[in-house]
Amino acid sequence: MSHSLATHPDRLLPADPGTRSIARSLLERVQDLPIISPHGHVDAAVIEQNTPFPDPAALLVTPDHYVTRLIHASGVPLAQLQPGAGARNIWRSFCEAWPLFDGTASGYWLRTQFESVFGWQGELSAETAEASFDAISAKLAEPGFRPRELFKDFNIEVLATTDDPLDSLDSHRALAADPSFHGRVVPTFRPDAYINIAHPAWTPNVERLIAEASDGGSGYQGYLTALANRRRYFVDHGAVSADHGVRTPATLKLDQAEAEALFNKARSGQATSLDRDVFEAHMMYQMARMSVEDGLVMTIHPGSFRNHHQPTFEAFGADTGHDIPVATNYTEAVRPLLQDFGTAKDFHLVLFTLDETVFSRELAPLAGFYPSVYIGAPWWFLDAPDAMLRFRSAVTETAGFSRSSGFIDDTRAFCSIPARHDASRRIEASFLARLVAEHRISEDRAHELIVDVVDSSPRRVFKL
Amino acid sequence: MSHSLATHPDRLLPADPGTRSIARSLLERVQDLPIISPHGHVDAAVIEQNTPFPDPAALLVTPDHYVTRLIHASGVPLAQLQPGAGARNIWRSFCEAWPLFDGTASGYWLRTQFESVFGWQGELSAETAEASFDAISAKLAEPGFRPRELFKDFNIEVLATTDDPLDSLDSHRALAADPSFHGRVVPTFRPDAYINIAHPAWTPNVERLIAEASDGGSGYQGYLTALANRRRYFVDHGAVSADHGVRTPATLKLDQAEAEALFNKARSGQATSLDRDVFEAHMMYQMARMSVEDGLVMTIHPGSFRNHHQPTFEAFGADTGHDIPVATNYTEAVRPLLQDFGTAKDFHLVLFTLDETVFSRELAPLAGFYPSVYIGAPWWFLDAPDAMLRFRSAVTETAGFSRSSGFIDDTRAFCSIPARHDASRRIEASFLARLVAEHRISEDRAHELIVDVVDSSPRRVFKL
Amino acid sequence: MSHSLATHPDRLLPADPGTRSIARSLLERVQDLPIISPHGHVDAAVIEQNTPFPDPAALLVTPDHYVTRLIHASGVPLAQLQPGAGARNIWRSFCEAWPLFDGTASGYWLRTQFESVFGWQGELSAETAEASFDAISAKLAEPGFRPRELFKDFNIEVLATTDDPLDSLDSHRALAADPSFHGRVVPTFRPDAYINIAHPAWTPNVERLIAEASDGGSGYQGYLTALANRRRYFVDHGAVSADHGVRTPATLKLDQAEAEALFNKARSGQATSLDRDVFEAHMMYQMARMSVEDGLVMTIHPGSFRNHHQPTFEAFGADTGHDIPVATNYTEAVRPLLQDFGTAKDFHLVLFTLDETVFSRELAPLAGFYPSVYIGAPWWFLDAPDAMLRFRSAVTETAGFSRSSGFIDDTRAFCSIPARHDASRRIEASFLARLVAEHRISEDRAHELIVDVVDSSPRRVFKL
């Protein structure tokens, strides 16, 4: 029987027949488990309002900077991939660029979606641009293709969104209160734009934050109170984690007076670049302190040079495909935080990286000692089959299977969620199958472990 | 049927029988394609004058610092490997050290040459030193073993040399004008010794450059004019690229007055170490600007600490085996250049590295966004089978197959060129075969991709 | 026939049947060779006095920070793993945590010990805690389980200990003089606490050193004399190497006056943090100079941030599981030393790393040129199956097989020594088998090479 790539039962499994057969059996064990997605960027309102998805280009191309970046690299100006360029034009550009995605993680997820979600089995090319656009558009118009129906079809149990600290969380509340909706959509507290002084909206953000949530306090103390209050509000609306996108994982404990002085200097627009770094490092310490108090899992996503190409940023804004990783060092950076909170009761700190060298050198050793530290799953450029296998190989021999976070899809592309989790499960099965084939763990134990890494780990680490 | 290692049809192919069989079929698709060598160090005069190759030691040992370095590490003083030491003595030292080359890339290329080029099938050892020397010498004396005949036998279509900016390019011109020569030998503009103030000959070089090519200009402006003129001269003589060997990939845009001041300071011998770094970074920016104007592909080879062992440098000069890589960071370093030229029309910038960590962390993300950026193939210590596989695994999931340069042999060892390209093709076949075996790409598509990476990529990236 | 994991003849061998069969035959070649252990932390007195091993917890859990760290990460306070906590309580904590060790190197060594040394074949769990404790305790009480008997059973030929420069080496002398003991137990000179000014005992150590060994000298010169004398004392008692645990591999040559001034400043308690770094770097240079004179192999183990969690250090002391690696750079750091001693006759310098990126980028290139430099085997967090394979893949293509140190168990866990060496041999067989399967070396040559890497390399590199 012949299979397409996207539906081949052995896709991503190791080529060696003996190992593959073990992997198949491990995969079977978890293939039907519900999806736990503890970190991502889907908009809760889309699910709450069950908004029909727009056309194929607006769903699959324009908002996905993984996709537009590679089309751009092939020579297509970003302007031709903006909403204003016309859905069919954008789709055609995408179809023409489709061969460039061979071998990429994005290509794998897209191909799987086309076939498994939208029923499109042909290749994409200039020739099939119209037909594929029409076919997917027709599917999108069907009632079964609305977000809530797909949420159920995709077998999603938990989906975390990422939210502004001042967000009302109305959609989350409405979903939680809706007896007809059976999933769990939880917010995530993401205060970067209130913490990073370099953020263009930091000053107005902080003013709004203090005005709305400081219980009448002012200045630095009011700021801390407001952050704590909003975190509490998130907890009350189901949040399980607070996420931090920072340039470096630096942490620092300032005394109250120092922190206050920096805060005031920043509000008067006088902060230097060093002041910003110091304040951000200090606020990571404060966020950890609050996590110890309110129980929100703390996740850190460092190491990206945001908006690398200034002209593109000026023309098209942030998140347009030119955030580029830099070398990251955790050992000394995270030490001040861990000195005080590394063994704090029930504190969970999940450390992500875009610099793979950190996995074996720093994250596995840290997570193998500190009860609070968990190794963040491969993320962004690294949540791809080979990279995920390298990750497991890099961390397991030091930290075992119990110290990592479980898969994070981190996506705003709702329809790619099943493909991403499926790929991750296949890679976990592949890695464990190799350990079984090499007589390093028993097959029975591997069957337990794959359930643990796919299902129990994210529940345990994210307190779900 | 029994095969020697060097001629085994499955050499370097993956052990898994299913994957190997796919790899074999992919390899067949490209095995007879001509060699495209867009960056290397063969001397054009050798081909133009069709100079017979000297003895085996002078051909295969003394000029190849990959080879002499490992013999030196085994305890043989470099003096015993210098031309003056006697060809047979050198050859004997090499033969005695031959077992040390097992598992190395150099050993693989040498073994392949011995058997496929020189017809020597035995092992090398003290016992066979005389016989192998004689056998190879005899071959070298045959008329079919002169450079032009081998150029044709090796099926080389394009061979780029690396040349001084003031080189007359007479040999290139003569070859181009010679109707009896059917290959294409193109020069490469390599201005390091005119840009790096720390180069011992920088001052006289710059004086000569301005005197010969500035159209009467002087000072910094004359210097820039002369560089632009010589680049144009290279373009007129078939050059397709300008190559830059730098310690770090730093780039910087100085204003005219700052650059001029630094230039004058350097000419008066007053430049500090920091001045040199700043000027070099600025000149990388200028070289990019000129590449945008004249179309030369810009290639950057950073990250080597040159002449690490000062006593060896003093006794034997540069390129004697003790250039040692250092950690490299591209993301912030190359940003000033990319701000202005990253999306410039038809600009090609190929970024190489000796620090493998940069492949997945920085080069694949950069090349996956900027239309100008291409990922340089694994180079120097990294153009070896396992390292090349690690490279493909590191970059493909982010950048696909279209954003890398294609193989670069970078060699001065003319007779090793077929072995190097053959090894590269086998590794490309192996990598693609695994993706097919894992159902990540179709076998048909892999057949297209292997032609693309082996043949179309270097043509496209180097504008051949 | 069914095998347990710990005794499966194919454990750790590659899954591909063809490659596995080659690996099996290579492994057979070395499986019965004696153990050469040129660097480790077993106490010589334990062997000399043939002290019976204590209970299972005190033997296998409390002193092994590889083991306690992961139990601690699971939430068990270190206080519950201290000797005072009660052997059976500690053992129960360990048994409960046992599943966390799946996939780790420690788990592999422990499992192998339980079965091959102690004859315990069941799994460990809360349920089997009592039974396993009793079973292992019973074995430990048998006369055949005393250190000297196990030394023989384990087929250890050479075991190096790690010793304080002022150690009397009485146990070593007694063992050497004992006609009934047939092994070789050699001391290793480890002067960190006399060189690193930041060490809390540096001042009294230096005073004691000068008082006891300076031949009446004083000050910096007396210090150097005393170090040289104690090194000589170690040589006279069989030492073959001097080992250096440093934060970075920095080396530096100060002139006499500068060094003396720093030394005096430190003794008066005035040294800054920079002074300490400079002095340590200078002393690495001095240690190399002395190694050139007295022939002790110099080994450097850098790159660990010691005692990362201050509260744990204060409560439980050093070596309690929170030494965390940091990024390491060798190329520039080790240059001052290599300038003067890199080609010195019979000087051996073995460079270790906890930062894997250094293997291909720096260590293989350095060892592939300098006759003095050898690549240290994967160490600490890296002496695990996958990490050892990555190591071989990273260094071999540049440096071949002759430039690495051979396996180092670096352990204080005497009973784990056979399991560690066995794992290493299996990985060497696996790597070589792949090269054979890929037709990169002949099977005959692989049989020579595996003996070389397992047996000849450590003898040659450590002058045994």
What's this, in brief?
The structure is a homotrimer of 464-residue chains. In chain A, 50% of the residues lie in helices and 8% in strands. With 464 residues, chain A is an alpha/beta fold.
What features would you describe in this structure?
- The structure is a homotrimer of 464-residue chains.
- Chain A is α/β, with parallel strands linked by helices and 464 residues long.
- Chain A has two domains: 54-145, uronate isomerase, domain 2, chain A (Orthogonal Bundle); 147-461, TIM Barrel, CATH 3.20.20.
- The first copy, chain A, has 20 helices and ten strands.
- Chain A has helices spanning 17-30, 44-49, 56-60, 65-73, 87-97, 105-117, 129-141, 147-153, 170-177, 192-195, 202-213, 219-236, 256-267, 273-294, 310-316, 335-341, 357-367, 385-399, 417-437, 443-461; strands at residues 35-37, 156-160, 184-186, 188-189, 241-246, 297-302, 304-305, 324-325, 349-351, 373-375.
- In chain A, strands 4-5-6-9-10 form a five-stranded parallel beta sheet.
- The mean pLDDT of chain A is 97.
- Chains in contact: A-B, A-C, B-C.
Largest interface: A-B, 51 and 45 residues
Listing every helix as H and every strand as E from the N terminus to the C terminus, the arrangement of chain A reads HEHHHHHHHEHEEHHHEHHEEHEHEHEHHH
Q: Looking at this structure, what is the CATH superfamily of the largest domain in chain A?
A: Metal-dependent hydrolases
Whole-angstrom Rg of chain A: 22 Å
Q: Examine the coordinates and then state which fold CATH places here, giving the name of the CATH topology of the largest domain in chain A.
A: TIM Barrel
Ends distance of chain A: 41 Å
Number of helices in the DSSP assignment of chain A: 20
Q: What is the SS-derived class of chain A?
A: alpha/beta
Number of domains of chain A: 2
Q: Kindly report the oligomeric state of this protein.
A: homotrimer
Q: Helical proportion of chain A?
A: 40-55%
The count of strands of chain A amounts to: 10
Largest sheet of chain A: 5 strands, parallel
Specify the overall morphology of chain A. globular
CATH first level of the largest domain in chain A:
Alpha Beta
Strand content of chain A: 5-15%
In CATH, the architecture of the largest domain in chain A is Alpha-Beta Barrel
